[in-house]
Amino acid sequence: MAIFRVWISAALLSVLVFVSLSPSLAEEEKAAPAEAEPSFVLTLDHSNFSDTVAKYPFVVVEFYAPWCGHCMKLAPEYEKAASILSKSDPPVVLAKVDANEAANKELASKYEIKGYPTLKILRNGGEIIQEYNGPRQADGIIEYLKKQAGPASALIKSTEDAENLIDDKKIYIVGIFQEFSGEKFENYLKVADKLRSDYDFGHTSEAKLLPRGDPHAKLPVVRLFKPFDELVVDFEDFNVDALEHFIESASMPVVATFDKDPSNHPFLMKFFNSPNSKAMLFLNFSSENFGAFKSKLHETAEEYKEKSISFLIGDLDASQGAFQYFGLKDDQAPLIIIQENDGKKYLHPNLSPDQIAPWVKEYMNGNLKPHRKSEPTPEVNNEPVKIVVADSLQEVVLDSGKNVLLEFYAPWCGHCKKLAPILDEVAISFQNDADVIIAKMDATANDVPSEFDVQGYPTLYFSSASGKLLQYDSDRTAEDIINFVKTNRDVIKLPESPESPDSHDSAKDEL
Ligand SMILES: *[C@@H]1O[C@H](CO)[C@@H](O)[C@H](O)[C@H]1NC(C)=O
Ligand SMILES: *[C@@H]1O[C@H](CO)[C@@H](O)[C@H](O)[C@H]1NC(C)=O
């Protein structure tokens, strides 16, 4: 689902701390200039990582790569934060590891580094490892880390404390206890410690200090405040796993909102990370019947809460990336699209609020036909390399009874541009052979059927006349590709096409 995440990542870039880059893409960039100046940020490598981390109760480690632009942007902010935090009590230590360095790769893989920069919080000499989910400006880093280095749960002694901690923008969790001891309290702290980089925790002995919820609730109880849906919810099971599960599920909105408001973004990440099918309603939030759409979608989402489908409402203004990804047009909004994890999609364009529930029901009952993104089938297609679109792929490639070499490409892909003249050469060499077709499909503008595994561009597949499907992953030279086609093609015995001369030296399934 990596490609699926592209549009959401692009849309959230402004608030997301980190961006993944594939190393192959990145290696083309230049190394950063050498740095000078003594630094408050410790430089660690494979030789001294464990020993250094073991010395401190709280260390933050940035895994970076010298060529990574986001790392360079972070560097001065990280340095500034390190200099200020070095004076805090107890000191908070900031460190960095060049994860691109061959000798440090093992370290990077131990910490599951998938993109740069990635920051990890290591507690208790490295025993506890947490994701850094904070901001990337110096002030934000300092504030976030001071809180992370302090107690996992803040004591709430007054309504003033409660007002300072609990606002209507984020999730806040309060354990309300008669006394701050015993197994239930210990379990609460354990969960708070585990989830503290994602949520804020507090504890109090007086429910009446809190802004919402039953002031006379039976104690002990865990109260979760959230900026959406029922706004406050209580939970009474202090089993560690149950408590953790409650927090994760109660903090997910019934309908996630996709717009330009950054306070919604943490919930979006959860939405996109969920294994569920995703139902997304896109419309202009300024339109007159927005309220009706919202409440109808909410009702529907409530109905399917326990089923494996998650709901989102997205503002047209923020959703250009999504529209591009799905091949949708603005005049199809309001629209609802369901995407399943295997890539299957279902679409209802131009729908009204009252059509939401019946359509989702039809979907759940398995009565809808999947939607396929396709460019229009070209009217003229007489270049040596034929153009294939999603709508013509079955006919031109899979059911054609010919030997087809098909390239999946992206318009922006450099390796594809390099391959273009080579494919032309291959196509021209087979020009007088009616049984061989060389073709290409823009995989960003057309849905790729599931029998093809396209993880990068270009991807080349060969579909033989008898339907054998092979991926081509040898050298991208005309000679090698031509040989591959000759070796794997099937001979088609049609009265009007005589057997080709190469058929004698090629391995093939006779038709
Ligand atoms: C770890 O080793 C590297 C390379 O020898 C060195 O540059 C760095 O200063 C060392 N860091 C610490 C904290 O000793
Ligand atoms: C949404 O509607 C408002 C008001 O009608 C309009 O100004 C705006 O351009 C629309 N946005 C999009 C993306 O169509």
Which characteristics define this entry?
5-stranded mixed β-sheet, 16 helices, binds 2-acetamido-2-deoxy-beta-D-glucopyranose, 511 residues, alpha/beta, Glutaredoxin, globular, 4 domains
Radius of gyration: 28 Å
Bound molecules: 2-acetamido-2-deoxy-beta-D-glucopyranose
Please work out how many helical segments DSSP would assign.
Answer: 16
Beta-strand share of residues: 15-25%
Give the overall silhouette.
Answer: globular
CATH class of the largest domain: Alpha Beta
Mean of residue pLDDT values? 87
Largest sheet: 5 strands, mixed
CATH architecture assignment name of the largest domain? 3-Layer(aba) Sandwich
Short description:
This protein has helices at residues 4-12, 23-26, 49-54, 69-85, 105-110, 138-149, 159-165, 183-195, 240-250, 265-273, 290-303, 320-326, 356-364, 390-398, 414-429, 478-488, and strands at 42-44, 58-64, 93-98, 118-123, 128-131, 153-155, 172-176, 200-204, 221-225, 232-235, 255-258, 277-283, 309-315, 335-339, 345-348, 386-387, 403-409, 436-442, 459-463, 469-472. With 511 residues, it is α/β, with parallel strands linked by helices.
